[in-house]
Amino acid sequence: MSSQSVAEILKKVQRIQIVANRTVNDLFAGQYKSVFRGRGMEFDEVRHYQPGDDIRSIDWNVTARTGDCFIKRFCEERELTVLFVVDASASGVFGSTRQSKLNVAVEIAALLMFSALKNNDKVGLITFCDEVLEFIPPRKGKAHTLRLIRQMVDVDPVARETRMDVALEFLNRVQKRRAVVFVISDFLGDPPLQTLAAANRRHDLTAITVEDRRELELPDIGFIQLRDAETGQMREVDTGSRRVREMFRDENLRRREALARSLLRIGVDQLPIDTERDYLISLRRFFHMRQQRFH
């Protein structure tokens, strides 16, 4: 459990609920439905054959039984199972602006959860660090959705190495049927591309990559002590050196670009989020990209 009081947690949940509900109603309700699809086509009904119908749709059993020609009608299976796989490692605590990476991740997850709620979809949650910390199986309903948000708000970040592969392997064990999956993490370190690709073959997987600008660029403020949030390792860095700042920026830009290329290569959609910028713009761009693909 985190050090937050119950009152603090409930206050945060209420604020997130108000913002997410308003945003879903104003912006995303229709888009969410159009960009995330069900598992495929399901049987709807039989009806009399009409000239021009595809003969491959004829229901021969009903036709033989009734003596009239009937065809099968199918409709898109709309109900979704949506799972959020959220990185709860200590690096998420970092934030050089008003919000940490983890706080932004929770808000985005809540917004998507309320979109799923409005669409009557099932929603579940997996939090992880070097192991799976919490699994709440997918269910429908507002009370269940609020429980998931409370769980995320109450996460106590873990100062251990991140093992996304463990969480994804767990996902594939507990979720046998195809689901929409959002993996929310800062994706620092080497992402488990093989495991991500395997999960994406089974599910519709999106990587929500949350970053802070101070992880890309250092300010010019002289010598500073940097601490790795997950290993505790300390390092002194001379930010007054232009060469040091440029090396830091170039290395992190290379890492970010390599991650984007790798996700594209294995067919995983990326939704990049910056703690300093309005994430609604990124979400709109992401929904538009998905809509262009389907239409």
What does this entry look like structurally?
This protein has 295 residues and is an alpha/beta fold. The protein has two domains: 6-36 and 79-294, 3-Layer(aba) Sandwich (Rossmann fold), CATH 3.40.50; 42-76, no CATH class. 43% of the residues lie in helices and 23% in strands. It has eight helices and ten strands. It has helices at 6-35, 60-66, 101-118, 142-153, 164-174, 193-202, 242-265, 279-294; strands at residues 41-48, 70-76, 81-87, 122-128, 132-139, 180-185, 204-211, 223-227, 234-238, 269-274. The strands form three sheets. The chain has a six-stranded mixed β-sheet, sandwiched between helices. Helix 1 runs parallel beside helix 8. It is elongated and about 90 Å long.
Question: Could you name the key traits of this structure?
Answer:
295 residues; Rossmann fold; six-stranded mixed sheet; two-stranded antiparallel sheet; 43% helix
Number of strands: 10
Terminal CA distance: 45 Å
Task: Indicate the overall shape.
Answer: elongated
Encode the helix/strand succession as letters. Answer: HEHEEHEEHHEHEEEHEH
CATH architectural name of the largest domain:
3-Layer(aba) Sandwich
| Class by alpha and beta content | alpha/beta
Summed over residues and divided by their number, the pLDDT gives a mean of: 80
List the helices and strands and how they pair.
Blueprint: H1 6-35, E1 41-48, H2 60-66, E2 70-76, E3 81-87, H3 101-118, E4 122-128, E5 132-139, H4 142-153, H5 164-174, E6 180-185, H6 193-202, E7 204-211, E8 223-227, E9 234-238, H7 242-265, E10 269-274, H8 279-294
Parallel strand pairs: 3-4, 3-6, 6-7, 7-10
Antiparallel strand pairs: 1-2, 4-5, 8-9
